[in-house]
Amino acid sequence: MSQDESGRSAAKTALAASLNRRSLLKGASLAAGSMAVGGGLLASTASGARAQGRTEITFASAKFYAKKTIAQIVDAYNESQTKIHVKYIELPPPSSSTEVHQALVQQLARRNGAPDVFTQDVVWIAEFAGAGWALPLDEYFPAAARAEYFPGLIDACTYQGKLTALPWIVDGGMLFYRKDLLEGIGAKVPETWADMTTIAMELQKSGKVDFGYLWQGKQAEVLVCDAVSVIGSNNGSILAADGKSATIGNDQAVEAIQFLYDTINKSKISPADVLSWDEEPSRLPFTGGKAAFLRNWSYVYGIAQDKSASSVVDKVGVAPLPHFAGGKSASCLGGYQYGVNASTKNREAAVEFLTWMSSPATQLRFAIDLGLAPTRPAVYDEAELAKEQPFMQTLQSVFTGATPRPVTPKYAQVSLALQSGLSRGLVSGDIKKELTATASKIDAILGA
């Protein structure tokens, strides 16, 4: 085992052990603030000593922070009422998603009720639901309540017809573009891939940029995200609607991935280096002023506006990703969502806390204080959000058409097969052959 693998293994063990300790410590009085435990995990009580008689639950979440932390939001909940006290368990950030996933798997599989509430990457929802670890929430959130969220997110939070997660925060792939360069040639923001290619080639040919379009082709999860968007924008898909068979070998998917190959080898608006790039390597040339267009996540905008890290301050716009003729923009859905442990011994308290955390008022606080995009369209219309986070209001159109990655309890295996097949196709150029072979592998994984 390599040193890196050993470190990850130790971190996973420490995370799971910490979660278990938290459940064993139920009812104990812990000091406010945070304490270090094995593997560098921070666990905090999220408030002072709990009031006698309160129902105590645990909440485990990946780490997000900005002007405030999640612990401070949980503090606010504890101080807002006297029935429930929440102990917050801080997991690593999403950049260490493997460790977060493994910790939750190890703990939820014990079925001892801890943690009562947790946050999960959107692609884990089917896995956790399929294993029976996530509590169905339909009786608590009927159709009228679900209609208050982005439809794509509700779809992603639903497994076999049951709502098994509740939306918290959303992100999606989007198109960053140079406003000044488009204005300079009298071009409109492109709505189709063909228009984007034409503009990118013109700007590149004129010497205004080194690169027309940057994306992420590294054999990693981000390549799947790029593929979901471009395939979806051609009315294609990776899996059939029932999730039981692969459709990535179909003509719409082949044409879409061929387009990505052509950006490198035909129109040459993308450098061959994109095949080894994930988010940050692709972001750097764009904020360095060397590219016209970039596909990436919402975090890029803040960096683009930072004078210490960007050469394009006030020159960057954001729009939904382009689509093929006859298709529509299909932003790949990202973000973390809430779940309730199916084995919780405090179901009503857990649901009450989750309801507060996903409420419009709390989502507004997350947006303003932590920069986490709301999953309720109505929150984007709030005047306070417009004042404090004006960029975030521009994202509503991106998230409205968000498309989830394949929904299957075997997502981890499907994703690895996709990464490998897509990568081989983009390197060899034999897109049809590789996607057809990938479809066969995915069918075998799914038992089709």
CATH class of the largest domain: Alpha Beta
What gap, in angstroms, lies between the N and C termini? 35 Å
Order of adjacent strands in the largest pleated sheet: 1-2-4-3-5-15-8
Going by helix content, strand content and strand pairing, the class is alpha+beta
Round the mean pLDDT to the nearest integer and report it: 89
Tell me the name of the CATH homologous superfamily of the largest domain: Periplasmic binding protein-like II
CATH architect. name of the largest domain: 3-Layer(aba) Sandwich
Domain module count: 2
Biggest sheet layout: 7 strands, mixed
Q: Give the helix level as a range of percent.
A: 40-55%
What does this structure look like?
InterPro entries: SBP (IPR006059), TAT_signal (IPR006311). It comes from Kaistia soli DSM 19436. Pfam families: SBP_bac_1. The protein has 448 residues and is an alpha+beta fold. It folds into 2 domains: 3-170 and 334-400, 3-Layer(aba) Sandwich (D-Maltodextrin-Binding Protein, domain 2), CATH 3.40.190.10; 174-330 and 410-446, Periplasmic binding protein-like II (D-Maltodextrin-Binding Protein, domain 2). It contains 19 helices and 15 strands. The protein has helices at 3-24, 70-80, 97-108, 125-130, 143-146, 151-156, 179-184, 193-205, 221-232, 251-265, 279-287, 299-304, 347-357, 360-370, 383-388, 390-393, 396-400, 411-428, 431-446; strands at 34-36, 42-44, 55-62, 84-91, 117-121, 158-159, 162-163, 166-167, 171-172, 174-178, 211-214, 291-296, 316-319, 333-334, 336-340. A 7-stranded mixed sheet has the order 1-2-4-3-5-15-8, sandwiched between helices. It has a 4-stranded mixed sheet with strand order 11-12-10-13. α2 (70-80) links the parallel β3 (55-62) and β4. α9 (221-232) packs across α18. The longest helix has 22 residues, at 3-24. The protein is globular, with a radius of gyration of 22 Å. Residues 1-50 have low confidence and may be disordered.
